[in-house]
Design a protein that fits this description.
The protein folds into 4 domains: 228 residues, Phosphatase 2c, domain 1 (4-Layer Sandwich), CATH 3.60.40; 89 residues, Phosphorylase Kinase, domain 1, CATH 3.30.200.20; 182 residues, Transferase(Phosphotransferase), domain 1 (Orthogonal Bundle), CATH 1.10.510.10; 25 residues. The protein is globular, with a radius of gyration of 31 Å. The protein starts with 5 loop residues before the first strand and ends with a helix. The strands form 5 sheets. It has a 6-stranded antiparallel sheet, covered by helices on one side. A 5-stranded antiparallel sheet has the order 1-10-9-6-7. A 5-stranded antiparallel sheet has the order 2-3-4-5-8, covered by helices on one side. It is 33% helix and 21% strand. By secondary structure, it is of the alpha+beta class. The mean pLDDT is 89.
């Protein structure tokens, strides 16, 4: 479930006048899943707070990196078993008794599915249309007066049997994870009303009942499902994915004319005399869920991004195969266009404007392109004017969402090779490399091969040395964009766009790594010429 579709809140308060309690929680909203964990360190155990923190962090990290081949149930049960055994054995070794002990509530949201588990007496509730339901099961004694005695907890025994459940989600659902410090103080009615406001409201309401002197540590986490991920519908539809497609084949009325890319999955096609581009899912998506998810995400992005920067894309309602359709744009890629000669300065300024405006449009949707390069830019004509279009949707992703080296190595910012996420600054670097290449047909740091981790210690050659037609202001903009030091590189699109639109405001760019001669080449040449001229005059006078 994407970050735009889910809202979370959480708060913990320590009991009495203590500054820190034994509870711990964490909520992690990721691109494909959301994980929330609440733990209540058992107060009778000296190291309950440590157990709560370690259990929470271990489970969030493990579920984030879980093997894709594992079911969610297997993952949850396996990781709970792991942390339980680790804490128990560590307690026995260090203290010879159970000291690292905590309760646990855990939920994972993936698409429209809710997965949950608990150990101990912390709880999970679901509020749906004012109907509050406890989804977890208390591991506590039933006898009157013994309700607070746990029958199971993380770290209490070497083996643990978590209570596990699954449910479907609906838009508008609210999920609450809380410790006994909350539900012991509030009625179901108060919990139902408080969930709608958020975690802070619930915890503070419980605290006010005791004049802000809580008898127990109290924690609440609330997750609100704003809407279900629209990608689910695209993924769940049963559609054909063929191993190969052939010229002349007809798919839902679209006749395949010729493949546009060597992988044979993107074709020029025709329907009722109009040419389109049809892009099919890769054959691996039949068995590989990761590949299917990536293609579904690409289709969703293509269908979602309605702007002139991209070709118009549609997903036919009655399609029988897994594909989407784009308008066919007559033109050539920028890579092909500059193979004959570099881009003119005027067109390069237009290109910079196009790429920055497109990137600003994406960032408003919390998105980044991720693979800006000449191969993905089409040069075409519109009303006798040369214009650009971005044609690749497959790399578009949420900004800051993941650590990946996806993209084309020669255009990746140095920090991307060090596992940094895609940001405005890394996109600006790719824009700078694209402009550098368009004007010089060279790369500022040389061509970088896949799986190579390059060094960026060399200063890029000034573009004006490769193309003297480039004005110095534009050279300064490009060099600042491809700066390896992020403190010197443009921080955001608007900063770079302002200088593209206001050349007279651009300050000369000098790289401190360059020698004095390199930075002041013309001045050195002029000084040298004048010095040689003077020496020649002196020599002539001396001989006469």
């Amino acid at each position: 479930m994407s970050k735009q579709n889910i809202e979370t809140s959480g708060l913990t308060l320590a009991k009495g006048t203590q500054l820190k309690g034994d509870d711990f929680f964490e909520v992690k909203v990721m691109e494909n899943i959301t994980v929330a964990v609440v733990c209540d360190g058992v107060g009778s155990a000296t190291h309950g707070a440590e157990a709560a923190k370690r259990t929470t962090q271990f489970l969030v990290q493990s579920l984030k990196n879980r093997p894709r081949s594992w079911s969610m149930e297997k993952s949850i049960r396996h990781f709970i078993g792991n942390i339980n055994r680790i804490l128990y054995l560590e307690s026995m070794e260090q203290y010879e008794r159970e000291e690292l002990v905590t309760t646990l509530t855990l939920v994972v949201i993936e698409g429209d599915r809710l997965y949950g588990a608990n150990v101990g007496d912390s709880r999970i509730y679901l509020l749906r249309e004012d109907d509050l339901t406890q989804l977890s099961s208390d591991h506590a004694m039933d006898e009157e007066g013994m309700e607070n005695v746990l029958t199971s907890a993380i770290g209490l025994e070497e083996q643990v049997e978590a209570y596990y459940f699954e449910n479907n989600l609906r838009a508008g659902d609210r999920i609450l994870l809380c410790t006994d410090g909350l539900y012991n103080e509030l009625t179901d009615r108060e919990i139902s009303e408080g969930i709608k406001v958020g975690a802070s409201f619930l915890v503070k309401k419980a605290s006010k009942k005791h004049h802000d002197d809580l008898p127990d540590d109290t924690t609440a986490v609330v997750i609100e499902i704003k809407e279900l991920d629209p990608r689910l519908k695209l993924k769940q539809t049963s559609l054909i994915i063929q191993e190969e497609y052939q010229k002349g084949e007809e798919i839902d009325g679209y006749r395949l004319l010729r493949p546009l890319i060597q992988n044979n999955r993107t074709w020029l096609c025709e329907k009722k005399g109009v040419e389109y581009v049809i892009k099919f899912a890769p054959p691996e998506a039949v068995e590989d869920e990761v590949m299917l998810d990536l293609f579904v995400k690409e289709v969703w992005m293509a269908n979602r991004l309605k702007a002139g920067f991209f070709p118009k894309a549609v997903v036919p309602k009655k399609r029988t195969h897994r594909y989407y359709i784009m308008n066919f744009i007559e033109g050539v890629s920028l890579k092909e266009y500059i193979a004959k000669k570099p881009l003119t300065v005027d067109l390069s300024v237009e290109l910079a404007h196009f790429l920055l405006k497109m990137s600003q449009f994406l960032i408003k949707h919390n998105l980044v392109h991720g693979d800006i390069k000449p191969e993905n830019i089409i040069v075409t004509r519109r009303k006798s004017k040369t214009v650009f279009k971005m044609v690749d949707f497959g790399s578009i992703t949420e900004a800051y969402s993941g650590i990946t080296r996806a993209g084309t190595p020669s255009y990746l910012a140095p920090e991307r090779f060090m596992q940094a996420p895609v940001t405005e600054q890394t996109e600006i670097f790719a824009i700078g490399v694209t402009l550098y290449e368009a004007l010089t047909r060279k790369f500022p740091y040389g061509e970088i091969e896949p799986f190579q981790t390059p060094g960026f210690d060399k200063t890029p050659k000034h573009p004006t040395r490769l193309n003297p037609k480039i004005p110095h202001w534009l050279e300064s903009v490009i060099l600042r964009a491809v700066e390896t030091d992020t403190d010197k590189r443009y921080r955001n699109y608007s900063e770079m766009l302002y200088e593209i639109e206001n050349p007279e405001k651009v300050q000369p760019y000098f790289d401190k790594r360059m020698s004095f001669i390199e930075r002041h080449e013309m001045m050195v040449y002029k000084a040298g010429f004048i010095l040689m001229f003077i020496l020649n005059i002196v020599q002539l006078l001396f001989w006469h």
